[in-house]
Amino acid sequence: TPLDVRRARLEPHDVALLIFDMQPEQEAEGMVEHQWLPAAGALDDLAEVAIACTPEEVSTHLADGLHPEIVFLFAETGWGYESLRQHKAALLDSGLRWIQAASSGAEKLCPIWLGTNVTCTNGAGIYASSLAEFVLAGILHFSKHFPRLAAQRRTATWQMRDDASVPPQDIEGKSVLIAGYGATGKATARLCRAFGMRTVGVKRSIALEDFEHVDELIAPEPKPALLA
Description:
With 228 residues, this protein is α/β, with parallel strands linked by helices. It is built from nine helices and eight strands. The protein has a five-stranded parallel beta sheet, covered by helices on one side. Strands 6-7-8 form a three-stranded parallel beta sheet, covered by helices on one side.
């Protein structure tokens, strides 16, 4: 859904509500304390900060008179989106003007605020390097037969190949097609080229700077279903 996304910035004495909608294992690992709060530490000097790790805490903050201009949303399970939807009227009345999502995708967030003056921004691009490493790990996982090697290690046996497999493959010289050539696609292409692979990107529109890490860029017309 199209959304007018504008730049928003902190102003002196802003009130920020940090919503951490975490998986149970993330809570057990202390992600809020060890990762997200240190990352948001700079807010302490710029804004009054309130933290909510459950829907009830969001409700309590608002019932106690918190009037956030800014919401930072880390939504893993989905209750964070529903909590914002539930309190939409109260948040608008309190002067909410900016929601920053930690995730790259904001398709569950943006529709809630269409037709309002609330700016929605996301974290697109900040995970590009990490996701590119996962892509390369997946390529190596299958080309080098890591599942078979792991199984052989558990049984203390060594066999170059089994009856149903082909030998491990080198990825140097192979071609990789990257459908959706944004920040993550570019980071993936950079790593693949370092391994000697030929890189082909598929993108809706092409700019000169897009060619830095690819051997070929394709902007098909009409737009294929995979980029719809």
